[in-house]
Amino acid sequence: MSERTPIWSGLTEEEHEFQYNPQRAFPNFAEYRVLREPANQAARTSLRMAADIAYGDHPLRKVDIFPAERTGDALSPVHMFFHGGYWRAQDKEAFSFIAGALVAHGITTVIVNYELCPQSTLDAGADSAICAVEWTHRHIGEYGGDPNRVSLSGHSAGAHLGAEILAVDWRARGIDPSFIRGAVLISGIYDPEPAMRTTVNQQLRLTPEIVRRRDVERRTPLVQCPVTIYVGGLEPWQWIDQSFRYSHHLHRHGWDPEVHVLPNYNHFDILQTYLRPQDPVLAATITKATA
């Protein structure tokens, strides 16, 4: 897809799979979800929650909303989280711990489900994520959230969806884009082309045409807001490179994103940072949400 030779062109099939399939690089990936489960269940049982709120007709077009406590008539800032799973796996119910970390800071939290491959295409997955943001902007006031103070974070494929949202022409949808106050993008994949060369593509069913449409390194970012990009220092170096490439893309369009490589974190345990107040990902998310 690129005019220059892709950096992965000299890799063997095995090397390419290691660089661009996180489950191959970290085969113990499931352990980290188990470690987060107590915090996840605590959030789902102790917080107020509006579960499975539909934002469209597809069964995966649903969100879980965790309203923050209100002070008088003031509306709370809103944060939306998009999970990873290489656009073909995972569910919002496993990410309620994000709300557990944010609601305590007065932030209404929306955990998003979106359409997944192979039942849907990546085009539909991106469209559903965008529609989730539009629905939240138009309806979050019903849950005590401020529709004009919405921030985003996403992990892995969810970071790609966050970048998709930053590339939307919101004015064409009748919305002032300033409602999006910031984005935190974690261990993202921003150009889907290398995924097309992995075994994961048996489920993704990517084509060159879909890749071209969904490559956010080629699309002009249209939402002017602060962006912070994180990636784990233990991740394969070509996966790390994606974060720098996307940050360069933002720079070319006049943005000034922060980029951080977090030492000693891999693709999966980097989400544990939401459970550790001293770690930067949670701090950046709170800062974006409350700005």
Describe this protein's structure.
A hairpin with a 7-residue loop joins β1 and β2 (62-66). By secondary structure, this protein is α/β, with parallel strands linked by helices. The protein is built from ten helices and eight strands. An eight-stranded mixed β-sheet has the order 1-2-4-3-5-6-7-8, with helices on both faces. The chain has a single domain (13-67, 74-290), classed as Rossmann fold. Keywords: Hydrolase. GO terms for molecular function: arylformamidase activity. This is Alpha/beta hydrolase.
Could you give a quick summary of the protein structure above?
The chain is 35% helix and 18% strand. With 291 residues, it is α/β, with parallel strands linked by helices.
In CATH, the homologous superfamily goes by the name Alpha/Beta hydrolase fold, catalytic domain
Give the strand order of the largest sheet, numbering strands 1, 2, ... along the chain.
1-2-4-3-5-6-7-8
Order of helices and strands: HHHEEEHEHEHEHHEHEH
Low-confidence stretches: none
User: In angstroms, what separates the terminal alpha carbons?
Assistant: 38 Å
Helix vs. strand class: alpha/beta
